[in-house]
Structures
1.
Amino acid sequence: MIVEAAFKVIAKDGFEGLRTRDIARLVGINSATLHHHFPTKENLIEGVANLLLSRFRAEAAAVEDETAVEALDRQWKDAIVYYMDRPEMLGVYREFVGRAPRDPAIRRLVQRLHAGWQADVIETLKKGRNDGSFRADLDLESAARIIISTVWGLVAQIFSTKDDFKAGFHELTTWLIAEQEDKRSAKTIRRK
Amino acid sequence: MIVEAAFKVIAKDGFEGLRTRDIARLVGINSATLHHHFPTKENLIEGVANLLLSRFRAEAAAVEDETAVEALDRQWKDAIVYYMDRPEMLGVYREFVGRAPRDPAIRRLVQRLHAGWQADVIETLKKGRNDGSFRADLDLESAARIIISTVWGLVAQIFSTKDDFKAGFHELTTWLIAEQEDKRSAKTIRRK
DNA sequence: AGGTCTATCAAGCACATGCTTGACAACTGT
DNA sequence: ACAGTTGTCAAGCATGTGCTTGATAGACCT
């Protein structure tokens, strides 16, 4: 209950708005009791970090038997779902990313989350490149970075609307996908 | 001197590390004197915002007679220069972006900076699309968003090294540029 | 039953921090 | 010359905030 309350407060007001007293009041306990369970504020933040990590993991449902294009599409949609329906997750993530430069423990958490995300994207891209649905001359790592940065553009609220987000994804997908003869006016050979 | 000191402190320790007393000590004045010039902390932050804006403007040198590809390349390089040689600018920018969701005045500043940036990129892309060096089927706004998000990925320290940054740019450029016959094994017609 | 551990509370300590007060001196305009 | 303005300072006020103290009651073990 304590970490959940802290999670909500961070999502809404950021680290700046995090007061141990407030959390205690929200949960309905004395602040001394809170400090009994979490001796320092750092410990509490650590607890929130673990909650964030476990929630992301819990929601990362592995889907079997999907094509690369389907997987990519699902990942876009997941991002949109987070953005529209679960903004607290992204809000907390954003806060942690913001604090990462100044806090080694948080930096490690963020790096772990980020590496997992990048690995997922690379996996999808590799699959698509191998089965011919994505361009053959794709640099997997760079492409993954661009995709993640674009999504992060949304998360960091550089994009403002769902439609902006979708348009960006549409353009990215166009770039990723291999040429289709029926979509082009001339035969295109991409693979060297 | 006061806003410059505040600028440096924000670049190094973020808003969390900003204390009026510290700024006063850094400048060598009494904190009451500081509050004489900047009645509230908000005023001081406002001063830093203006400094940031004017510095970005001062460094945005308009270059004449360059091709779209050259302009894009210059913009990449500018970003790298900021990253390598002027990290304080990006650090402060990052802090302001982080605070934007919770502060209307800062949000306006960030939107202004961001809109200017996007307009520059769109201008370049349009030029390149018209002269045939970029793909004809580019959605200017989406492409600009992707480019900016990628750069912001660096700024937000999702990318860690200059090489990561360059690789990302290389991939993006590949996507942007129109097909060249001498680079491909078959003739490609992109324009509809 | 007695001892120990755990969760809880009211009260408060210690310190940080934005900002104020009241005084003084230098400068400025008339 | 004098009144007003401006920049400066030492001291301090008011409040917020992480965390501690000392006490109490219940749970658990032997």
2.
Amino acid sequence: MDGLTKKRVTVVDVAHAAGVSKSTVSLVLQGSPVIPPDTQAKVKDAIRELGYVYNRGAASLRQASSSIIGIVVNDLTNSFFAELAVGVDMIVQSAGYVQFLAHSSEDVDRQNQVIASMREHGISGLIICPARGTEPADLKHLVDSGLPVVVAVRNVPGAKLSSLLSDNYAGAKAAVRHLIDLGHRRIAFLGGFSDIEVFRERTQGYLDGLSEAGISADETLVIHSSPSRAGGVDAIRQLLALRGAPATACLSFNDAVAFGVCDGLRSQRLEPGVDFSVVGFDDVIEARTAVPALTTVSVNPQRMGQQVAQLLFKQINSGRAEAEAIRTSVRLVVRQSTGRPLATQEAEIAS
Amino acid sequence: MDGLTKKRVTVVDVAHAAGVSKSTVSLVLQGSPVIPPDTQAKVKDAIRELGYVYNRGAASLRQASSSIIGIVVNDLTNSFFAELAVGVDMIVQSAGYVQFLAHSSEDVDRQNQVIASMREHGISGLIICPARGTEPADLKHLVDSGLPVVVAVRNVPGAKLSSLLSDNYAGAKAAVRHLIDLGHRRIAFLGGFSDIEVFRERTQGYLDGLSEAGISADETLVIHSSPSRAGGVDAIRQLLALRGAPATACLSFNDAVAFGVCDGLRSQRLEPGVDFSVVGFDDVIEARTAVPALTTVSVNPQRMGQQVAQLLFKQINSGRAEAEAIRTSVRLVVRQSTGRPLATQEAEIAS
DNA sequence: CTGTTAGCGCTTTCAT
DNA sequence: ATGAAAGCGCTAACAG
């Protein structure tokens, strides 16, 4: 009870208190069936009484395996990735693991640092949403260390790693077709930076969607910006300032951009969904109430997080699986703002 | 180079390759100044060549101290807490620590589980944004384990723990005064649940603000709801449906609620900031562009995260500090929607 | 300045 | 069914 002499209580102490030996305690801790119930009870009482806390570090040292999953995210500030991390955490926790989470702030150096740090802590698997500009070379060490790794959301084309990505191409194409069916001909693509694969996939779907409908693309209608709400405001402002035939609809890089586009429209006294059609990619839960008329190509981030975690565990448990590339399907969710509750119409999109 | 025989490379291997001893390697690893540069170089080369990765688990076992900070958040889905975690991470990383992040989904049992798990992993400090309904008893074990802990954002009144909270009372009062100065007399308080301390503090500020201006409070104008965007929509709908003298302004529990209130207003063809004044608490970065006219009582979550991490490190480094309760100041940010760029006016609020 | 030695708390044969 | 002993990879004394 002396505040200073408080030494860490170990299995030995527990064993002593319970009148058994070290290894018996260890076996109880692991729920081994070879220990008789009464002995188990004695040990458990001693544990409670002494306030013993299991030292997982020592255990992993001995067992050469930890129960830690690392996850490094490019930007936690983006709700999509925060939701994804939540989805991952659900699976990780239910598997009895804990989650190391770090975010790289879109900085490749930082990303390498945190990965190194995680490896030093002996993670038994890693999920990574790569920072912009991540090269296969950056992940070289990682992949040939044999650590189970899966890449989520953004691909790193050259790296031989498992990945779970959304079907960006098919989603963008479906969105464009939807807008064309609504009668639009001048359709813009707003937001995002061209140095990530996701952007390229989405713009490709956009371009192919247009050309399949016999509409020739106008490259001035593709406007880059930060993939954030503020970026969306910028992009729509630039679009509205263009001379020439005005666009009447846009596909936004993600939902943050789409929200920004709506903000920008409103500040010009235009009503999203009425004066100008907006389709957003990704689907943060808030989107449902935020802009009733906002159509989205939706990727459920929590579900995606769960899937990616499952893929990782599959890889961990199967020893050494081949790299596996999965595309999660997306849905086109059309919302109408006529009255309440909202009429929504969803369609699963196959590639 | 054989994929199966790949054994973990240890300090011994490195020592062998570099032609020195175990402890020399260890000293190099710790950047000790007693090792001559050329020996250091040899060792570092060997490390690179063998692909050695430091085993921090073994080190912590020996040193009885890890470099892990735990942070458990009630809801990562709420951008405010995601931003807070980012702020924490900045400090944690720059101190050479890594961050264990888990979220409790507002579930006290889950919260206890993850805390236990973190302790088993030997965290050297813990930051906690308590789940709703957390009792001092839930944290009893924790506090008398002597682990440095700081509570953030939400207080747990009975527990003897350091805390970093925003000045909710003063903020709410200032917001109400602002609305009164604008000429409002029927002011509502929307959103949030009354079982958390933050809610009580904010409503108290609201009530005192009213009564100091000689306005008697009308309890039908305090409407509870989930502290989310959807909750805000609900709350404003309920408010507008009330019979009797209509409210002309509201203070929202947080910014998510405020956004929802704006959504709800718009769906009734009312313009926030024109037909009805809205003040939101908390300040997610997006708020700036989202609703230009939205006045906020602003708490910068990233800054708060940094502060809380600093407080924790202070406690870790000073051995055993007394529990310390800090209130971060808040700012009243008034935004006007007249033209662009926005005219904003800020005022720091003292308690 | 560098090598030797003895554990940190746990798991795991191998005896009893 | 339980105990004894060895060792995971590292650091910290202490010798040399």
